[in-house]
Amino acid sequence: MKIKYLLTIFLIAAVVAAASGCLCEKSADNKPVEITVSAAASLQDVMKDAGAQFQKYHPEVKINFNFAASGVLEKQIEQGAPVDLFASASQKEMNLLEEKGLIIKSTRTNFTRNKLVILAPSRLTIEELKNLDKIAIGDPTTVPAGRYAKTALENAGVYEILKPKLIFAEHVRQVLDYVEREEVDAGFVYSSDTLKSNMSVSSINDSLYPPIVYPIGVIKDSRQPEISRQFIEYIQSSEGQIILQKYGFG
Q1: Around 64, how many Cα atoms within 13 Å sit in the side-chain half-sphere?
Q2: pLDDT tens digits, residue range 58-85?
Q3: Distance CA 20, CA 207 (A)
């Protein structure tokens, strides 16, 4: 009887444990699969839109975005930030991560382009910047748009003249804010940043700065590499490219 009693208790415990295990598994399955995308500040609007569209096809997925200057994001990833995907506004930051073995090399791809422009109350040339008092650019040490601007000014032969007038911003969207609030006389931003601006946009000769190409790649320690790859595929698809074009990229 004692053996039979113990056997009964064991069977009940086993059933309860199995049931508990099933419930836990089901609960885990019902939770959204989360991925974290660290993307350049200039991608803020378009990535949110693309992410929302991607989630319509994958309702089980939740995308968390982290926007900042590409150089800042690169340092965060290097220091172990839990990131699945990185989208940079220049090749430099992606190269640094690849050299350190922090990117799954086979996933790295270029997905869009941009152009550098001058934003100001009225149209002007690079030469005419000499007549202004305050000019905003992204900090060249961490902001790709700032590096492109510095290179353009150097190649135009006016960087040293304008250097005392430069106001460094933490990211390109901050430059946009400075100009919009008229805290500076002009600023260097991307063409895509100006779509909703009422300020005048002046183009810059493409030969003055390197091509602005955006790379994207899956982080080596990604917790969701497959979903991350699928998001890259979506960005590269015709639908994804149409969204990028809508926001002034490409």
Answers
A1: 9
A2: 999 999 999 999 999 999 999 999 999 9
A3: 65
